[in-house]
Write a structure and sequence with these properties.
By secondary structure, the protein is α+β, with helices and mostly antiparallel strands. It has five helices and four strands; from the N terminus they run H-H-E-H-E-E-H-E-H. The chain has helices at 2-29, 50-63, 85-95, 126-142, 157-163, and strands at 68-74, 99-105, 112-119, 145-150.
């Protein structure tokens, strides 16, 4: 009976070792290359609307000697999340799909110093309010200035320069 118990224990141990070994290598060895299924069609789509492009060009003109301007930037790409294990993963998961309309990057430090979010004229839905609050919280924690502009408002280059604190008058 003791031999049966010892044999069963050894077999169970061997099975456990085999499972651990195959599960750790399965993630890297068995990955299939990305292939589009037949019938799937991909086409380029506009990154900016006509109105957004106009505003982008005005912002670029207003800050051209001070910042690089990027459009439609993911939030996670402008902040460094320094935390341990699960906390870092939770934060990254929370901000993963949040997108910033425009980001002003200092050409010397190559870091985002200001972020622009566009706001539509219609009242914000509760999920959009929560999304903006999360973005604001992350940006404040990172020391990045947030500016909200109305998407259908006409701005002049001097107005934008003053909003972004890069006007010559200061």
């Amino acid at each position: 009976m003791d031999n049966l118990f010892i044999g069963l224990a050894i077999a169970l141990l061997a099975l456990l070792v085999w499972r651990l070994k195959t599960s750790s290598t399965a993630g890297t060895a068995n990955k299939e290359p990305f292939v589009l299924s037949p019938g799937v069609t991909l086409r380029p789509q506009p990154l900016l609307t006509d109105n957004d492009l106009l505003l982008y060009n005005l912002i670029r003109l207003a800050v051209e000697d001070h910042y690089l301007v990027f459009a439609r930037v993911p939030l996670w790409s402008v902040v460094s999340v320094e935390a341990e294990g699960k906390i870092r993963s939770q934060i990254l998961r929370q901000i993963a799909l949040k997108q910033l309309d425009f980001v002003l990057v200092h050409p010397g430090t190559k870091t985002a110093e200001q972020v622009v979010l566009l706001e539509e004229e219609s009242p914000l839905q509760p999920d959009e309010v929560a999304r903006r609050q999360e973005i604001q919280t992350v940006l404040e924690a990172a020391g990045i200035t947030l500016t909200t502009l109305q998407s259908h408002t006409s701005y002049s280059v001097p107005q934008l320069a003053q909003l972004f604190r890069v006007s010559d008058e200061e």
